[in-house]
Amino acid sequence: VHVAPALDDAELLRRLVAFDTTSRNSNLPIADYICEYLDRPGIRIARNPSPDGRKTNLVLAAGPAGLGSGGLALSGHMDVVPAEEPDWKTDPFTLATVDGQLVGRGAADMKGFLALAINALAALDPGRLRLPLALLLTYDEELGTLGARHFVETWAEPEELPKSAIIGEPTSLAVVRMHKGYLKMRFEVTGQAAHSGYPHLGTNAIEPAARAIVALGDLRAALERERPAHSEHFPDVPYAALNVATVAGGVAINVIPDRCRVELGVRLLPGMASKAMVDTVRATVRGAVGDAPWAITVLGESPAMLLPEDAPLHRMLCGALGQTETVGVSFATDAGWFQALGIACVVCGPGSITTAHRANEHLPVSEFHRAGQLIRDVVRRWCVDGAAAR
Ligand SMILES: [Zn+2]
């Protein structure tokens, strides 16, 4: 029995784009919509609310309970980045079709995949599934995989989750089995404010911070010369990329600055430990600031992701798409966290990361349909035929 979804893929995408799920907003309206859309016998719906209750992760599953681990998860984030670029030619929250492209905020990143995943579940007869299919939908990915982290840290029944997942971030349908992680830090140097005519009464916070910035520049250059494990799969940037990103300090030219705050990010290769990098940055700053009081804070972390080449889901997707080589990407995803639950993740979805986070974000109509075919095919083989279990 094939159940027809209530809306076709493009119409469902249009509805999803119409929810302004910019990360600063609550995602409860889109979550409610998705739950209502999929609410029927045989589909289990569970929420994993954020600590403040303004947002939620969703788990929607069908198929035999108790066999969760053998099943397949399709995962994506419900939030989008702001659409405030002045160059939008159409309303970002009204899906438009222009020259064979679906245009709108989230079309590629990643409501296109969400629409396909939701309809893949909607089209199934739960009674025919040998293995479960689950949708794992998150909030605040764009703020640094916050929803996925919360899910991993609080979900009560991780053993019931499928142990294989497709994270549908836009890869132009390349099958990605590794990506870099992302670590965000801030350090702040404290001085003593004083009138600049009486400098002996104050302590300048910017000067030691500046020495630390120079030292971090040296660390950046040293990291660029290293070739850690897996670097061959990141040919454009085969090293951990460190970026001193913001610096703020001082209030006026005639005041000795009592504070300087510096923010930096590091994109780690799979296998590089976040803690070790924090320690390296801490030691670098300590060695440069001298006696000035200072403190470092880790602002956020998205772990790197690495899946063995012979993982069944990786093999199945590569086979279906005719891909023979290993592909790594330099952006972080929810997969880094899911991996910590023992979930084997592949990142593969329609649309290009190069159009994401920009004005006139778009997704080729043909690629959207091709991805829909792929997802339905993989779900049928994995969950209906039980291909992975055999
Ligand atoms: Zn995304």
Please supply descriptive tags for the structure shown above.
6-stranded mixed β-sheet; 390 residues; 4-stranded antiparallel β-sheet; alpha+beta
Explain what you see:
There is one protein chain. By secondary structure, this protein is of the alpha+beta class. Helices cover 30% and strands 24% of the residues. The protein has helices at 9-18, 28-38, 107-122, 146-154, 206-225, 274-289, 312-321, 335-338, 365-384; strands spanning 43-49, 56-62, 72-77, 96-98, 101-103, 133-138, 164-167, 176-179, 181-190, 194-195, 241-249, 255-256, 259-268, 294-302, 305-306, 327-329, 344-347, 362-364. β1 (43-49) and β2 form a beta hairpin. α1 (9-18) crosses α3, α3 crosses α9 (365-384) and α5 packs across α6 (274-289). The structure holds zinc ion. Zinc ion is lined by residues 77, 109-110, 141, 169. Residues 77, 109-110, 141, 169 line the site of zinc ion.
* Alpha carbon gap, first and last residue: 23 Å
Mean pLDDT: 95
Strand order of the largest sheet: 1-2-6-3-7-17
User: What value does the Rg take, in angstroms?
Assistant: 23 Å
Q: What share of the residues lie within helices?
A: 25-40%
Structural class: alpha+beta
> What hetero molecules are in the model?
zinc ion
Specify the biggest β-sheet. 6 strands, mixed
Q: Give me the count of strands.
A: 18
Net shape: elongated
Sequence stretches where pLDDT stays below 50 over 5 or more residues: none
Order of helices and strands: HHEEEEEHEHEEEEHEEEHEEHEHEEH
Number of helices: 9
Provide the β-strand percentage band: 15-25%
